[in-house]
Amino acid sequence: MIRIQTEDISISIADALQYISYYHPPDFVEAMTQAYERETSAPAKNAIAQILINSRMAAQGHRPVCQDTGIVVVFVKLGQAVAIEGNCSLQQAIDEGVRRAYTNPDNPLRASVITPPIGDRKNTGDNTPAVVHTEIVPGNKIELTVAAKGGGSENKAKLAMLNPSDDLAEWVTETLPTLGAGWCPPGILGIGIGGTPEKAMLMAKESLMAPVDMAEIVERGPKTATETLRLNIYEAVNRLGIGAQGLGGLTTVLDVKINTYATHAASLPVAMIPNCAATRHIHLSLDGSGPAELPQVDSSSWPEITQQTVGQRVNLDEVTPEDYRSWRIGDNLLLSGRLLTGRDAAHKRLVDLMKLGAPLPDGVNFTGRFIYYVGPVDPVGDEAVGPAGPTTATRMDKFTDSMLAGTGLAGMIGKAERGPEAIAAIKQHRSVYLIAVGGAAYLVSKAIRAARVIAFEDLGMEAIYEFEVEDMPVTVAVDSTGASVHIEGPREWREKIASFPIRVS
Question: Most C-beta atoms within 10 A of its C-beta, which of 83, 286, 367, 372?
């Protein structure tokens, strides 16, 4: 009987979560580098470059690759010959590791977990509890797969109960465009097939923990029916032309992972969960000799991309309606000056105040200004703010018309597409919507020179801040005419891929 201490589990979990917050898996970096090298869409290539530069910066600075440091998911394979010793349960030991990792003063991670899920929705403050899946297996070890899954990709999970005769690849290629770009492509698709609905979802999630190996399958050819299906879906999805950040391009997914299980003869449960450009997971093994050891990092894993951000310089403190109404989709801008921030909770409070005819909080004046949809990580050292990449803008769509009509807001900055309701409001008010690259949070934070909370401090990372930025890189995604780069870009590249012999793998 092997005896493993709960303290060793806690230490291993804490170390792993710190590690994956700033180190991308090497196989992911390699796959993203290959996507960068073959990409011919300029906007998509620029976005992938920013993701890779951000990845290298995060690794060197030991700061999170993304401001959304995720909800923790742990897959436990518990050997039958293992005895866990300590004064707490396995769940409690894992949660203690999460608590230590997310409150580490050297690299604090953003606490995003709330409880209860309905009603008050109060932040737990330390990102606990983790979601733990435990399986009893033969052996004398505990195998842990630790992941930190961001909300932008989790929110795009899909489950379907197909008929046994349905075309699964067709379902994926029809469903994927409905996800939008909020999951920050290019990433990885995890698919679970069979079992029951909950089993399919669990398989889809766990499939994302496997190494990226699509390049190998493309080179040698598929050897099994599952590999054939993976390759078919991979090529079909990339022919959609969605591309990096939904801007249009050759690479929408880096890999497609599939797990299967026996199912009822009348059923075909299929689950799909994407992993974003902030892919974070690691496998650990505990054998009773102490905490798990983490792999050494090879600094040569990252490509030497020296591409500098480019674009028209904009002074946010002096920009006029005539200025921003002249911008067109695809234009690259470098923003300097002051902007305000706000996410879901802040928007709800602001709109509720306006409905009551009440004044906005002191210091909150949106007239002629831009709002950045962000929930930053706490700063360390001399940082003005921690990693501060954009959050998915579509969650703010229902507030957009009220904000534009009631506050004099000039424009918005986020990630991913806007829905028809928001685009109509932007066109009506002749506003604009800009995007920063999702998955480049540490890079973006380097453009933020100062930050202060000006309202709703109780909301934590969802409070309203005022940022002072210098050369913050953004792209015009919806212009004042209502044109959307997330519609036009993929349409253009879907036609190119269909018309010319462009290889997408």
Answer: 372
